[in-house]
Amino acid sequence: MTAMNTSLPAGKNIEADAEKAIGKLTEAQNEIGRVIIGQRNVVDLSLISILSGGHALLVGVPGLAKSLLVETLGTVLGLSEKRVQFTPDLMPADILGAEVLEQSESGKRAFRFIKGPVFSQLLMADEINRASPRTQSALLQAMQEKYVTIAGAKHVLPKPFHVLATQNPIEQEGTYPLPEAQLDRFLLQIDVNFPTLDTERSILLATTGAATTKAAKAFTSKDLIAMQTLVRNLPVGEKVVDAILALTRNARPDQTELGGVREAVSWGPGPRAGQALMLATRAKALLDGRLSPSVDDVLDLAGPVLRHRMALTFAARASGTKIDHVIDQLKDSLR
To answer: What is the pTM of this model?
Structure first.
């Protein structure tokens, strides 16, 4: 875990930069909304994850436009985007790349590294939990260190680098649960639910005609990197820091002051959860047109940050307790 330098560069006008960023973010939201009907919360959480410099896990049944969302984000944010369909027979080399032996015209043989799809700015890992644990773990180093090691050689990934993975509900056939270490690499878990009646009606009318709506580019990758730097420089008040610490520490069964959490949780979030909340609340404030986050932002993001970083005891699961019930208890303790 590396230290984070949040000092502003000399002469930096944070308010002017924030106003410019807010205008571009509004444009991006409008462009995405032309393609993705409804699901505003899902769109905003995806943008928050990218603005924070992190990765996101989108969880939902097939057919809810998760893949279309990732493709649209790549277009609107000006990122090079590649897609990998995860299947049980997918191998790590299919994601990372591999060395091949080539022979020159003079007869000299040498290995050449052929880059895999992970060498992109926005990698869509579609149905990530349909691949074997060995293949899933191939992304661990890339997601955390932003480089991969092949045959002892280090290969740096493009900047920025983000993974947006889609996952089917684990109750479905043919899925492998993601290991805790990899789940922790995702800044947010974004649950994608079925649309409302009115939204589904709009989807039917908008997507079954002859014309196809396409999003336009609103960002460049340089714009995005500048915004990610701006997010890290937004000020955070002591009340927000205290709320983040209280939330994450109370989610751990050996540190919590809440009896219900102690009985229901088998393991809780580590310090990375607090880091994720700190960054995500800043990004949410900027997306909402504000210069600093509030305790309400912490409450709004508690679920997406903590949901995949906690596990229930067997007794809690047997009694019908859900992880969201525990998170609601944690949020109530802050109110």
So the answer is: 0.88
Q: Would you write out the chain's pLDDT as a tens digit for each of its 335 residues?
A: 444 444 444 335 888 888 889 999 999 999 998 888 888 899 999 999 999 999 999 988 777 778 888 889 999 999 988 999 988 889 988 999 888 888 777 778 888 888 989 999 999 998 888 888 888 888 888 888 898 888 888 889 999 999 999 887 765 566 777 888 888 899 999 998 888 898 888 888 877 777 777 888 888 899 999 999 999 999 999 999 999 999 999 999 998 888 888 998 998 899 999 999 999 999 999 999 999 999 999 999 999 999 999 999 999 899 988 999 999 999 998 87
CATH superfamily of domain region 12-233: P-loop containing nucleotide triphosphate hydrolases (3.40.50.300)
- CATH architecture of the domain covering 235-335: Orthogonal Bundle (1.10)
Element (H, E) at 165: strand 162-167
Residue 103 tokens read as: 């022979």
Residues 6+ apart with CB under 8 A from 46: 56, 58, 69, 73, 164, 190
